[in-house]
Design a protein that fits this description.
The chain has about 350 residues and is α+β, with helices and mostly antiparallel strands. The chain folds into 2 domains: about 190 residues, Fructose-1,6-Bisphosphatase, subunit A, domain 1 (Fructose-1,6-Bisphosphatase, Chain A, domain 1); about 130 residues, D-Maltodextrin-Binding Protein, domain 2. The chain has 9 helices and 15 strands. The protein has an 8-stranded mixed sheet, with helices on both faces. Strands 12-11-13-15-14 form a 5-stranded mixed sheet, with helices on both faces. Strands 1-2 form a two-stranded antiparallel sheet. A hairpin with a 4-residue loop joins strand 9 and strand 10. Helix 2 packs antiparallel against helix 4 and helix 6 crosses helix 9. It is globular and about 55 Å long. Bound molecules: 6-O-phosphono-alpha-D-fructofuranose. 6-O-phosphono-alpha-D-fructofuranose binds next to loops. 6-O-phosphono-alpha-D-fructofuranose (P6P) binds next to loops.
Length: about 350
């Protein structure tokens, strides 16, 4: 297991140095691609497009405060430009980069009611939440972009269809997120484990800072919006009470941590261990989070890092989608914490 003592030196931004060279995202992807001789480079180019858009969004997010001073969202700023909501802007940036790159046949997005067709001759579909947690921008809390990539199932040359987009999470070819926080990181998987890259503004590139992320099997953090406690099904309420009980042997009470930004809550649990839950409630009987561009990508990343991802009744990656913006209940986290919650859920399932 990689420990801090065995990790090679890092530079100021936390980027790994291998024999005194920084490993950038592009270099890492190119080396990964060499493991697949048949690879055409199209997926690598989609990562190039996502990386470009992420750097642009990072710039926009970082100047959000200034924009607010110069003009609130929806008004015109000093240059007479209409100030757009940042999540709309982010959506446009990612779609523009993917359209210009030419390797994406369609995008589904939290910001788009329906499929956004791009190049009919391309073979990859991108599902994304361009700026998740955007309500946290005004309070300067971490927010993120979440993306999921599929290979189309209909022949190239025609416009992508709903059949191309509504694929279960176990068919993803890549999944990742960008967290715009104290530093900006891109974390992704293509099924070969999970690697994290930190934006080094000095060189304007993402570089390897967190190789082979493994989520601890146990954790001491539970992450849920307890404001909904009264609406949660009984097993969740019992589990949350369990998290609060005093029991030194099992390191309880756990710490409650909830930022209200999925990417931020997820990333913290990936690094430190923990469990994130967004259960079904009376007001949201299917839960709140979206299957295609929040739960599926984060579930694959969690499983690739050694964690578990469940709706409470089934593996999230096996859910057969029926709608583009379908919601599912979600439990994501350390293997042993999720299995404990599953014990509570199975007790009532009988
Ligand atoms: P609540 C942000 O709006 C979001 O989509 C996720 O990033 C976050 O985990 C969740 O909703 C927070 O929802 O109902 O707790 O505010």
């Amino acid at each position: 297991m990689t420990t801090a003592a065995t990790l090679p030196a890092r530079n100021f931004y936390g980027c790994m140095k291998q024999k005194q060279r920084v490993i950038t995202l592009s270099q890492f992807i190119a080396e990964e691609q060499q493991k697949f001789p048949g690879a055409s480079g199209e997926l690598s180019r989609i990562f190039r497009d996502i990386k470009l858009a992420a750097k642009i969004v990072n710039r926009d997010v970082n100047k959000a405060g200034l924009v607010d001073i110069l003009g609130n969202h929806g008004t015109t700023n000093i240059q007479g430009e209409t100030v757009k909501k940042l999540d709309v802007l982010a959506n446009e940036e990612f779609i523009a980069a993917l359209a210009a790159g030419g390797d994406c046949c369609a995008v589904i997005s939290e910001e788009e009611d329906y499929i956004r067709p791009l190049n009919p001759d391309a073979k990859y579909i991108v599902a994304m939440d361009p700026l998740d947690g955007s309500s946290n921008i005004d309070v300067n809390a971490a927010i993120g972009t979440i993306f999921s990539i599929y290979k189309r199932v209909t022949p190239v040359g025609s416009e992508a269809t709903l059949e191309d987009c509504l694929q279960p999470g176990n068919k993803q070819v890549a999944a990742g997120y960008v967290i715009y926080g104290s530093s900006t990181m891109l974390v992704y998987t293509t099924g070969q484990g999970v690697n994290g890259f930190t934006l080094d503004i000095g060189i304007g590139d993402f570089c390897l800072s967190h190789p082979n992320i493994q989520v601890p099997q146990n954790g001491k953090i539970y992450s849920v919006n307890e404001g909904n406690f009264a609406q949660f099904p009984l097993p969740y309420r019992e589990y949350i009470k369990y998290c609060k009980q005093v029991d030194k042997e099992s390191h309880r009470p756990y710490s409650a941590r909830y930022i209200g930004s999925m990417v931020a809550d997820f990333h913290r649990n990936m690094i430190k261990g923990g469990i994130f839950m967004y259960p079904e409630t009376e007001s949201a009987p299917k839960g709140k989070l979206r299957l295609m561009y929040e739960c599926n990508p984060m579930s694959w990343i969690m499983e690739q890092a050694g964690g578990t991802a469940s709706t409470g009744t089934e593996r999230i990656l096996d859910v057969i989608p029926t709608e583009l913006h379908q919601r599912v209940p979600v439990i994501l986290g350390s293997k042993n914490m999720v299995s404990k919650l599953m014990e509570f859920l199975q007790q009532t399932a009988g």
